[in-house]
Amino acid sequence: MAAKSKEISKQEIISHYMNTCLEHEVVPKSVFKFCSQLGIEDSQFFKHFGSLEILAKEVWLAFHENTMKALEGDQQYEGYDRRSKLLAYYFSFFELITLNRSYVLFSLKKEQGIKSLQSLSELSKLRTAFLKFATALIEAGNEEKKFSFTKHNTQIFSEAAWAQFLFILKFNLEDDSPGFEKTDVAIEKSINTVFDVFDHTPLENVIDFGKFLAKELFAK
């Protein structure tokens, strides 16, 4: 059998995977079958991904990376304060989610349902990248504080930010308003509330707030 010479990029593989999932309403059964449909050798697949499971995680990581690329391409972004940077991230991320909503719904509902977002392994790479982003914002805020006792614990506060992110993601998945306008309102109100809580509330209350958001992820 002659070797296939077609070259393909990482992004093209991701796009084809998303389309394949939607067209067949199931994930590909194997790397071999997936690559056969795409017309490439599986060796090209393995240049970028170790498995189909990793590819599924990379889709969500790509949403984050494309969001950051868009923000970093905005000359005004660097001049934003921390609250505005987080708002810009959320609005950009969920705009991208809207453009890919069919896949997002397939991805998050195909197995466990949206009540299980916290434990969904498909979001693990996104979680790592988001925590890094949140930690950078928290550290920037700490640099502005004169006294060490007023500085935020980056691990605790970044995890609380992730819980908030999942809360809004769950809200968006259930949002049936025109243009998902309720999600926009939820983003703004949620982030304003979080910054007020984080900046003016004792640490134990922040932990309680994180537990509340986590609990809401499983609420009906």
Q: How would you characterize the overall build of this protein?
A:
α4 runs parallel beside α7, α7 crosses α8 and α8 packs parallel to α10. 25% of the residues are buried. With 220 residues, the protein is mainly alpha-helical. The protein has two domains: 39 residues; 157 residues. It has ten helices and no strands. About 2% of the residues have low confidence. Helices cover 70% and strands 0% of the residues.
* Principal-axis shape: globular
- Which structural class matches the secondary elements? mainly alpha
Along the chain, the helix and strand elements come as HHHHHHHHHH
Q: Provide the helix percentage.
A: 55-70%
| Cα radius of gyration in angstroms | 19 Å
Can you count the beta strands? 0
Largest sheet: none
Q: Could you name the ranges where pLDDT drops below 50 across 5 or more consecutive residues?
A: 146-150
The number of helical segments is: 10
Query: How confident is the prediction overall: mean pLDDT?
Result: 82
Query: How many domain modules?
Result: 2
Determine the N-to-C terminus distance: 54 Å
Query: Approximately what portion of the residues adopt beta-strand conformation?
Result: under 5%
